[in-house]
Amino acid sequence: MSSRRWLLRSRPNYVTVVGSYSAAVLLKGERLPTPGETVIAEYFSEIPGGKGSNQAVTASSLGANVQFVARIGCDRYGDQALKMYNEKGIGTEYVFRDSKAHTGFGAVIVDNCGRNLISVAPGANYDLSVDDIDSAEVVLRNSLLVGFQLENRMEVVDYGIRKVHAMGVKTLLDPAPATRLADDLYPCIDFIKPNEYEARVLTGIHVAGVREAKQAGRWLIDRGVKAALVTLGEIGVVCVSGTHAAHYAPPQVAAIDTTGAGDIFSGAFMAAFSGGGTLEESIQFANRAAAFSVTRLGVIEAIPRLEEVMTSEVRKAA
What we know:
The protein is α/β, with parallel strands linked by helices and 318 residues long. The chain contains eleven helices and 14 strands. Strands 5-4-1-8-9-10-11-12-13-14 form a ten-stranded mixed beta sheet, sandwiched between helices. A four-stranded mixed beta sheet has the order 3-2-6-7.
């Protein structure tokens, strides 16, 4: 496979992730509760989470040299986060401890079909500031790619994307939780990775499959994004860039928990791209990583090994 050429490199160019950390409780039961209903869970676990953190850990686990810019509380969950980053080899110079806010915390409920409900209390994530972004200027400027999500305050994310773009560094935005973006922010985004729901919030197009995903991707390209990666769950991903649009179908797997699959896609994409992968190679690599992750419970625990990601090809459709 051609992608082995870049995956075998040791510690490629920097990836910096600006984002969130949230500890979480995971409950798994036969089905999801309806409003007002109590459902007995069959499984419980405390897990590390937060979209930014999940993506940083995935990128590092798959070979990227990762720096993380974030805020965590001065509590046991913040201590656990730093311990994990040190074990994963992630740079933490710009992971700030916040004495005035708790570490972000979330609750995840998963059913036996792999569907989930998630609620998050942002805590220290909402205290990340433009001054924090400015303080990390050196690592941002030295990055090949900087990843953002929307679990910090929108004005801070907006500022960070514009600042990184002005440096000539490539940006990736995972637009979740979904919200509308300023029209003049789109030209500052090299890669945007919405799922079906997020694509509809951004574009107004109801994405029900590949055809609509291509339409939503074209809408994003027309507003200045360089490449739009619209993820479609088990259907795969549609990539629209320039005048080109392609659909990549993932390996077929038996999903037991889809929590964090989008984060693992983003982290794997950043690892592949920072290692010298082409856009198509990076998408294929990320598609495989996300597919394998849904066969296990959790997020960090579900990040596949490099050898697993390389075991099968991704089918490219018309």
